[in-house]
Amino acid sequence: MKTKLYILSLLGATSLFFSCGDSPEQNTVENPDTLEVTVETPSKSNQSFLTFSGKIEAVENATLSTRNMGYVTRVNANVGDEVKKGQLLIEINNADLQAKRAQVNAGITEATAAFNNAEKDFERYNSLFQDNSATQKEMDDITARYEMAKARLEAARQQKNEINAQFAYSNIVAPFSGVVTARNVEVGDMANPGMPLLSLEVPGNFEVKASVPESEIASVEQGTGVDVLVKSSGETLKGTVSEISTSASNSGGQYLVKVALNETDAEIYSGMYASVQFPTTAKENREVVLIPTSTLITRGDLHGIYTPSQQNTAILRWVRLGRTIGDEVEVLSGLSAGESFITSAEGKLYNGARLEIQ
Q: What share of the chain is helix, strand, coil (3-state, %, to 5)?
């Protein structure tokens, strides 16, 4: 009897197990949620832009160096210090120059004494010659000695000027009033000719140096107003093309273009990277289709954008891009001016996702 009850219990448990497995609730696949999205149509422009990368630099800047070799004995400035024109910044050991200057001063003293003596003799013989008490030969000889003494004195004085000029390279002073932006030496370092020691710049007056390829340089005109996008802050500044190089022989086909920045309260510093947008009339007066760069989907070298279909599903379309214009990019193919594209979604977009357009 107990055996029969045990078998019946097993059969009941098995039937209950299979009945639970065939429950409709367990076999139902939930449909994906509908995504709420926002769509827009591309903006259009009849003007094109040439966008090139550049770097912000101070208009007035200098890197100080020396042409003498010697140990650095004093550095009177640190990075960030404000200095005045003519202020002593670096001292380099100049014991050898001091010895040369002493020799030159002794030579000047000797040459001065010889010149004074020769000048007195010249004046004496000149008086005698005027009184016919000296011959022409004597007068010529004394004149020659006088001119040689005069030349030796001048040579000694020029040697002193040369020594003083070398002292200017051992005592480095500020060429203009500004701010120290780099310090490359410490006390005790050996300074070599041409070695950068300190860098200075005048703050507040900046320009952007951009390289433009030869295929586009003809479209850039001096005096043109441009927009400068500072990459680190995202700010857009105004500037004017101030200089265009006419040679690219030493820059691999890239022409240097300088853009003077207008006065601004923006926090910008030398060395920041920026994009310069040079306006130029679009060829054949064609309309330029623009979309925000934030809406792009990038996979490797491919760029795409999600668009809504007629059935309100998401479709990823690959597009070919042109120039970047501020925070927008030109679409060359893959999206026309009248078509909509998705700018934002309340969830992750994918091909076939059902959409609810706001």
A: 30, 40, 35
Judge whether 227 and 247 are in contact, CB under 8 Å: no
Query: pLDDT tens digit string along 14-33?
Result: 443 333 444 333 333 344 57
pLDDT tens digit sequence for 89-114:
999 888 888 888 889 999 999 999 99
CB atoms within 10 A of CB 15: 10
DSSP 8-state assignment for residue 358: -
Q: Which CATH number fits domain 35-46+286-357: 3.40.50.300, 2.40.420.20, 2.60.40.1910, 3.40.50.720?
A: 2.40.420.20
As a whole number, mean pLDDT of residues 235-260 equals: 86
DSSP character at residue 354: B
Q: Cβ neighbours of residue 310 under 8 Å, at least 6 residues apart?
A: none
| C-alpha to C-alpha distance for 113 and 201, rounded to whole angstroms | 48
Task: State yes or no: pLDDT of 198 exceeds 90.
Answer: yes
Tell me how far CA of residue 38 lies from CA of 33, 80, 224, 246, 349, in angstroms: 16, 49, 38, 48, 12
* Ramachandran class of 349: left when φ > 0, alpha when ψ lies in -120 to 50, beta otherwise: beta
Say if CB 255 and CB 248 are below 8 A apart: yes
Fold of 68-92+170-200: OB fold (Dihydrolipoamide Acetyltransferase, E2P) (2.40.50)
